[in-house]
Protein backbone atom coordinates (compact mmCIF):
# COMPACT_ATOMS: atom_id res chain seq x y z
CA UNK A 1 0.00 0.00 0.00
CA UNK A 2 1.34 3.43 -0.90
CA UNK A 3 0.80 5.84 1.98
CA UNK A 4 1.34 9.59 2.12
CA UNK A 5 1.35 11.68 5.29
CA UNK A 6 -0.42 15.00 4.95
CA UNK A 7 0.35 17.64 7.54
CA UNK A 8 -2.67 19.54 8.78
CA UNK A 9 -1.64 23.17 8.71
CA UNK A 10 -4.62 25.42 8.56
CA UNK A 11 -6.93 24.59 11.45
CA UNK A 12 -7.87 21.75 13.78
CA UNK A 13 -9.70 20.20 10.80
CA UNK A 14 -8.37 18.70 7.58
CA UNK A 15 -9.48 21.01 4.76
CA UNK A 16 -9.91 19.56 1.27
CA UNK A 17 -10.84 20.93 -2.15
CA UNK A 18 -12.43 18.36 -4.46
CA UNK A 19 -12.22 18.83 -8.23
CA UNK A 20 -13.75 16.11 -10.37
CA UNK A 21 -14.53 15.07 -13.95
CA UNK A 22 -12.51 17.78 -15.65
CA UNK A 23 -12.56 15.85 -18.99
CA UNK A 24 -9.62 17.83 -20.38
CA UNK A 25 -8.15 17.55 -23.88
CA UNK A 26 -4.66 18.07 -25.26
CA UNK A 27 -6.18 20.76 -27.50
CA UNK A 28 -7.09 23.77 -25.40
CA UNK A 29 -10.22 24.32 -27.49
CA UNK A 30 -11.41 20.74 -26.96
CA UNK A 31 -15.05 20.60 -25.96
CA UNK A 32 -17.50 18.11 -24.52
CA UNK A 33 -21.07 18.59 -25.77
CA UNK A 34 -20.38 22.25 -26.48
CA UNK A 35 -18.48 23.12 -23.30
CA UNK A 36 -14.78 23.89 -23.74
CA UNK A 37 -13.53 21.88 -20.79
CA UNK A 38 -10.32 23.87 -20.41
CA UNK A 39 -12.38 27.08 -20.07
CA UNK A 40 -14.81 25.63 -17.53
CA UNK A 41 -11.92 24.11 -15.53
CA UNK A 42 -10.19 27.48 -15.42
CA UNK A 43 -13.42 29.26 -14.50
CA UNK A 44 -13.63 26.92 -11.51
CA UNK A 45 -9.97 27.46 -10.59
CA UNK A 46 -10.37 31.24 -10.76
CA UNK A 47 -13.44 31.29 -8.52
CA UNK A 48 -11.82 28.87 -6.07
CA UNK A 49 -8.78 31.16 -5.94
CA UNK A 50 -10.99 34.22 -5.45
CA UNK A 51 -12.52 32.61 -2.36
CA UNK A 52 -9.07 32.55 -0.71
CA UNK A 53 -10.13 29.66 1.53
CA UNK A 54 -7.29 27.80 3.18
CA UNK A 55 -6.96 24.10 2.40
CA UNK A 56 -4.52 21.28 3.02
CA UNK A 57 -4.89 19.27 -0.20
CA UNK A 58 -6.76 18.90 -3.48
CA UNK A 59 -8.52 15.63 -4.23
CA UNK A 60 -9.37 14.79 -7.85
CA UNK A 61 -11.80 11.91 -8.28
CA UNK A 62 -11.31 10.81 -11.86
CA UNK A 63 -12.21 11.54 -15.47
CA UNK A 64 -9.36 14.02 -15.50
CA UNK A 65 -8.94 13.52 -19.26
CA UNK A 66 -11.33 13.05 -22.15
CA UNK A 67 -8.75 12.17 -24.81
CA UNK A 68 -6.27 10.01 -22.85
CA UNK A 69 -3.28 12.15 -23.81
CA UNK A 70 -0.35 13.00 -21.53
CA UNK A 71 -0.95 16.64 -22.53
CA UNK A 72 -4.46 16.60 -21.08
CA UNK A 73 -3.07 15.46 -17.71
CA UNK A 74 -0.37 18.09 -17.93
CA UNK A 75 -3.14 20.66 -18.51
CA UNK A 76 -4.70 19.62 -15.21
CA UNK A 77 -1.31 19.80 -13.46
CA UNK A 78 -0.63 23.24 -14.95
CA UNK A 79 -4.02 24.48 -13.76
CA UNK A 80 -3.51 23.59 -10.12
CA UNK A 81 0.09 24.81 -10.03
CA UNK A 82 -1.12 28.16 -8.74
CA UNK A 83 -1.31 26.38 -5.37
CA UNK A 84 1.45 24.59 -3.52
CA UNK A 85 -0.70 22.03 -1.72
CA UNK A 86 -0.48 18.42 -2.88
CA UNK A 87 -3.15 16.89 -5.07
CA UNK A 88 -4.21 13.26 -4.72
CA UNK A 89 -5.91 11.77 -7.75
CA UNK A 90 -7.48 8.50 -8.81
CA UNK A 91 -8.70 7.22 -12.19
CA UNK A 92 -12.19 7.33 -13.65
CA UNK A 93 -13.65 5.39 -16.55
CA UNK A 94 -12.37 7.97 -19.05
CA UNK A 95 -8.79 7.97 -17.77
CA UNK A 96 -5.68 6.35 -19.17
CA UNK A 97 -3.45 5.30 -16.29
CA UNK A 98 -0.20 5.12 -18.31
CA UNK A 99 -0.78 8.72 -19.44
CA UNK A 100 -1.63 9.80 -15.88
CA UNK A 101 1.74 8.47 -14.76
CA UNK A 102 3.54 10.72 -17.25
CA UNK A 103 3.00 13.76 -15.04
CA UNK A 104 4.33 11.88 -12.00
CA UNK A 105 6.38 12.20 -9.90
CA UNK A 106 7.69 15.59 -10.93
CA UNK A 107 4.67 17.62 -9.90
CA UNK A 108 2.55 18.24 -6.84
CA UNK A 109 0.25 15.40 -7.90
CA UNK A 110 0.45 12.20 -5.87
CA UNK A 111 -0.95 8.83 -6.79
CA UNK A 112 -1.31 6.75 -3.64
CA UNK A 113 -3.70 4.43 -1.82
CA UNK A 114 -3.87 6.06 1.58
CA UNK A 115 -3.36 9.55 2.97
CA UNK A 116 -2.84 9.87 6.70
CA UNK A 117 -4.28 13.34 7.14
CA UNK A 118 -3.34 15.14 10.32
CA UNK A 119 -3.86 13.23 13.56
CA UNK A 120 -7.45 12.11 13.26
CA UNK A 121 -8.24 11.12 9.66
CA UNK A 122 -7.25 8.90 6.79
CA UNK A 123 -8.36 9.25 3.18
CA UNK A 124 -8.42 6.04 1.14
CA UNK A 125 -8.23 6.23 -2.66
CA UNK A 126 -9.71 3.34 -4.63
CA UNK A 127 -9.29 2.48 -8.30
CA UNK A 128 -12.71 1.41 -9.61
CA UNK A 129 -11.81 1.63 -13.31
CA UNK A 130 -12.63 -1.24 -15.66
CA UNK A 131 -10.66 -0.34 -18.77
CA UNK A 132 -12.84 0.32 -21.81
CA UNK A 133 -16.27 0.37 -20.17
CA UNK A 134 -18.18 3.10 -18.30
CA UNK A 135 -19.18 1.07 -15.24
CA UNK A 136 -16.91 0.49 -12.27
CA UNK A 137 -15.75 -2.49 -10.28
CA UNK A 138 -13.36 -2.97 -7.36
CA UNK A 139 -10.86 -5.77 -7.83
CA UNK A 140 -10.07 -8.20 -5.02
CA UNK A 141 -6.77 -6.34 -4.61
CA UNK A 142 -8.59 -3.03 -4.13
CA UNK A 143 -11.11 -4.49 -1.69
CA UNK A 144 -8.26 -6.05 0.27
CA UNK A 145 -6.38 -2.75 0.32
CA UNK A 146 -9.50 -1.00 1.66
CA UNK A 147 -9.80 -3.63 4.37
CA UNK A 148 -6.14 -3.34 5.32
CA UNK A 149 -6.17 0.46 5.38
CA UNK A 150 -9.18 0.44 7.72
CA UNK A 151 -8.02 -2.37 9.99
CA UNK A 152 -4.54 -0.83 10.24
CA UNK A 153 -5.78 2.57 11.43
CA UNK A 154 -8.67 1.82 13.78
CA UNK A 155 -8.35 5.15 15.61
CA UNK A 156 -8.60 7.34 12.53
CA UNK A 157 -11.89 8.43 10.97
CA UNK A 158 -11.98 7.49 7.30
CA UNK A 159 -13.07 9.18 4.09
CA UNK A 160 -13.17 6.77 1.13
CA UNK A 161 -12.74 8.13 -2.40
CA UNK A 162 -13.58 6.40 -5.67
CA UNK A 163 -14.77 7.53 -9.08
CA UNK A 164 -17.95 5.47 -9.51
CA UNK A 165 -21.07 5.90 -7.41
CA UNK A 166 -21.48 2.94 -5.03
CA UNK A 167 -25.30 3.04 -4.99
CA UNK A 168 -28.12 3.91 -7.36
CA UNK A 169 -28.35 7.68 -7.75
CA UNK A 170 -31.85 7.71 -9.29
CA UNK A 171 -31.08 7.95 -13.02
CA UNK A 172 -31.56 4.71 -14.98
CA UNK A 173 -28.97 5.51 -17.65
CA UNK A 174 -26.33 6.56 -15.11
CA UNK A 175 -27.06 3.77 -12.67
CA UNK A 176 -26.13 1.21 -15.33
CA UNK A 177 -22.66 2.71 -15.00
CA UNK A 178 -22.34 2.57 -11.23
CA UNK A 179 -19.95 0.44 -9.20
CA UNK A 180 -21.07 -3.09 -10.17
CA UNK A 181 -19.86 -4.94 -7.10
CA UNK A 182 -21.13 -2.41 -4.61
CA UNK A 183 -22.30 -5.22 -2.29
CA UNK A 184 -18.71 -6.34 -1.79
CA UNK A 185 -17.67 -2.74 -1.17
CA UNK A 186 -20.38 -2.15 1.44
CA UNK A 187 -19.58 -5.45 3.14
CA UNK A 188 -16.06 -4.23 3.84
CA UNK A 189 -17.24 -0.76 4.90
CA UNK A 190 -19.86 -2.21 7.25
CA UNK A 191 -17.13 -3.79 9.38
CA UNK A 192 -15.53 -0.42 10.15
CA UNK A 193 -17.66 2.18 11.90
CA UNK A 194 -14.86 4.71 11.51
CA UNK A 195 -15.85 5.18 7.85
CA UNK A 196 -17.68 8.50 7.92
CA UNK A 197 -18.18 9.19 4.22
CA UNK A 198 -17.70 7.88 0.70
CA UNK A 199 -17.04 10.54 -1.93
CA UNK A 200 -17.23 10.03 -5.68
CA UNK A 201 -17.37 11.79 -9.05
CA UNK A 202 -18.79 10.22 -12.22
CA UNK A 203 -22.40 11.37 -11.94
CA UNK A 204 -21.71 15.06 -12.66
CA UNK A 205 -24.22 16.24 -10.05
CA UNK A 206 -24.46 16.88 -6.33
CA UNK A 207 -25.49 14.01 -4.08
CA UNK A 208 -25.60 13.82 -0.27
CA UNK A 209 -27.39 10.75 1.13
CA UNK A 210 -26.98 8.28 3.98
CA UNK A 211 -26.42 4.59 3.20
CA UNK A 212 -25.89 2.05 5.98
CA UNK A 213 -25.18 4.98 8.27
CA UNK A 214 -22.42 6.29 5.99
CA UNK A 215 -22.68 9.59 4.16
CA UNK A 216 -22.39 9.19 0.37
CA UNK A 217 -21.39 12.34 -1.47
CA UNK A 218 -20.98 13.16 -5.15
CA UNK A 219 -19.91 16.40 -6.70
CA UNK A 220 -20.59 18.42 -9.86
CA UNK A 221 -18.12 18.15 -12.70
CA UNK A 222 -15.98 21.12 -13.65
CA UNK A 223 -17.62 20.88 -17.11
CA UNK A 224 -21.05 19.46 -18.13
CA UNK A 225 -23.74 18.55 -15.59
CA UNK A 226 -26.09 15.55 -15.76
CA UNK A 227 -29.71 16.14 -14.85
CA UNK A 228 -30.67 14.44 -11.57
CA UNK A 229 -33.48 11.82 -11.56
CA UNK A 230 -33.58 11.58 -15.36
CA UNK A 231 -34.29 8.11 -16.75
CA UNK A 232 -32.57 8.88 -20.05
CA UNK A 233 -29.46 10.90 -20.80
CA UNK A 234 -30.11 14.59 -20.10
CA UNK A 235 -27.96 17.59 -19.31
CA UNK A 236 -28.65 20.02 -16.49
CA UNK A 237 -28.54 23.81 -16.67
CA UNK A 238 -26.39 24.15 -13.55
CA UNK A 239 -22.93 25.61 -13.94
CA UNK A 240 -19.65 23.75 -13.28
CA UNK A 241 -18.77 23.28 -9.64
CA UNK A 242 -16.48 21.96 -6.92
CA UNK A 243 -16.70 20.86 -3.28
CA UNK A 244 -15.09 21.98 -0.03
CA UNK A 245 -14.71 19.52 2.84
CA UNK A 246 -13.68 20.06 6.45
CA UNK A 247 -12.87 16.83 8.30
CA UNK A 248 -13.34 17.64 11.97
CA UNK A 249 -11.38 15.97 14.79
CA UNK A 250 -14.54 14.31 16.17
CA UNK A 251 -15.36 12.57 12.86
CA UNK A 252 -17.95 15.07 11.63
CA UNK A 253 -17.73 16.43 8.10
CA UNK A 254 -18.74 19.91 7.03
CA UNK A 255 -19.04 20.25 3.27
CA UNK A 256 -20.36 22.63 0.64
CA UNK A 257 -20.76 22.45 -3.12
CA UNK A 258 -20.07 25.69 -4.95
CA UNK A 259 -20.64 26.58 -8.58
CA UNK A 260 -19.18 29.08 -11.02
CA UNK A 261 -21.23 32.27 -10.87
CA UNK A 262 -19.30 34.83 -12.93
CA UNK A 263 -20.17 33.31 -16.31
CA UNK A 264 -22.54 30.73 -17.76
CA UNK A 265 -21.62 27.50 -19.53
CA UNK A 266 -24.32 26.17 -21.85
CA UNK A 267 -23.85 22.70 -23.33
CA UNK A 268 -25.81 21.20 -26.23
CA UNK A 269 -28.99 20.40 -24.36
CA UNK A 270 -30.35 18.29 -27.23
CA UNK A 271 -27.42 15.82 -27.08
CA UNK A 272 -28.51 12.19 -26.82
CA UNK A 273 -25.37 10.96 -25.05
CA UNK A 274 -21.67 11.54 -24.67
FE1 LIG B 1 -17.14 12.14 -15.97
What does this protein structure show overall?
The protein has 6 helices and 15 strands. The radius of gyration is 17 Å and the shape is globular. The mean pLDDT is 95. The chain has 274 residues and is an alpha/beta fold. The protein has a 7-stranded mixed β-sheet, covered by helices on one side. It has a 6-stranded mixed β-sheet with strand order 7-6-5-2-14-15, with no helix packed on it. Bound molecules: fe (ii) ion.
CATH secondary-structure class: Alpha Beta
Count helical runs: 6
Q: What share of residues is helical?
A: 10-25%
Main sheet: which strands, in order across? Answer: 1-8-9-10-11-13-12
Report how far the terminal alpha carbons are from each other.
Answer: 35 Å
CATH topology: Purple Acid Phosphatase, chain A, domain 2
Low confidence ranges? none
CATH architecture designation: 4-Layer Sandwich
> What class do helices, strands and sheet pairing give?
alpha/beta
Q: Round the Cα radius of gyration to an integer and report it.
A: 17 Å
**Average pLDDT figure:** 95
Short description, anyone?
The protein is of the alpha/beta class and 274 residues long. The protein is built from six helices and 15 strands. Fe (ii) ion binds next to loops.
Amino acid sequence: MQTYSLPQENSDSVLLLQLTDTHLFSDETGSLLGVATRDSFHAVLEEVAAQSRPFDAIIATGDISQDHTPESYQRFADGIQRWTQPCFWLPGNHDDQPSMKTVLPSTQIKSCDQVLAGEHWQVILLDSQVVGVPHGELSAVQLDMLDQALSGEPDRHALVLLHHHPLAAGSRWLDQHQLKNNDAFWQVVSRYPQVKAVLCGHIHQELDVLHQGVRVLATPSTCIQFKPDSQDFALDKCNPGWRWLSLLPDGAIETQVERVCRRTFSPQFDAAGY
